[in-house]
Amino acid sequence: MQTRSSDNAKGIDVSHHNGTVNWQRVAASGYSFVFVKASEGTTYKDPTFETNVRGARQAGLLVGAYHFLNAKDRETAINEAANFAAAMSVVGGAASLDLPPVLDYETNPSGISQSELNAVAKAFLTEIERITARKPILYTGNDFAQNFNTPMGAYDLWVARYNTQPPWNVPAWSAWTFWQYSQKGSVPGISGAVDLNVFSGSLTELRAWTANQSGGKSEGKSGRKDVDDMATIEELQQVIQAQEARIAAMEKKLNMSGKEPLPSWAEPAVRAGKAAGAITTSADKSIPDLIALQMLKNLGLLDPDVLRALRSLANSQKS
């Protein structure tokens, strides 16, 4: 990957660990952008997120938000994306921020496989883009970046490498968009060490880049989506299969095909319903139908003696 230079726009990233920040002093020290931690996992929201975003905005910095991922499966990743979107909503949502939303995926504590790891990342990235209509970027360490397969290169990379030497190429990326080159920086306005970053171009180029990121997926000169942005056939098939499985599970829960045996709890109510003339067959009855039949039986409204009495009463009123 490329090296950095003195012309690169300078930035930082912060969370509640950095305490109260004097953003005017940060801006006066030559820093032009910041990524602020918004959330982690499915429920945690950084308590300093809103204060940091508003302070950085007032100081004139370009502001973005990031989410630290803990998920070990796709469903949890989707829930984490929802938490991230909710966290950003307190400052106007992802659309109001200058920089794209960021997935921070740098550890694998659950020890999931490489294919599972990629599926989790893709699920989060796809969901946050669906919710926010902004294409996210991915933050990870240079070592950990080797876990991501080539299609993940469709997302811009924010890489962590604490060295004067540039990050090395990995299957998904041969260039970085942001580089976190130190986690022990000293910045006026912040007490203690802080992460230091650079953008892959000048401040003018960063402003132009952010303007191009605000509309979600990029389009080429033809107006068509870039090929790298499109889901692979395998990914589409996985989505279709998952939807079909959900539909089948719902149908199984709600409907009876007529060929399936009745649930044991419904058999007495069905017999009583047939004897009372309420139903003629148990075929194609839904679970709600069976529950309603059971309720009628519980109320005694399928009892032959009760029905005879009701019919007799009805006939006497007619006469």
TrEMBL record:
E.C. numbers: 3.2.1.17
Catalytic activity: Hydrolysis of (1->4)-beta-linkages between N-acetylmuramic acid and N-acetyl-D-glucosamine residues in a peptidoglycan and between N-acetyl-D-glucosamine residues in chitodextrins
Organism domain of life: Bacteria
Enzyme class: hydrolase
Any coiled-coil regions, as ranges: 233-260
Matches recorded under InterPro entries: GH, Glyco_hydro_25, Glyco_hydro_25_AS, Glyco_hydro_fam25_subgr
Pfam families: Glyco_hydro_25
Matching SUPFAM superfamilies: (Trans)glycosidases
Keywords: Coiled coil, Glycosidase, Hydrolase
PANTHER family on file: LYSOZYME
Family label: Belongs to the glycosyl hydrolase 25 family.
Protein's name according to its UniProt entry: Lysozyme
Species this chain originates from: Paenibacillus physcomitrellae
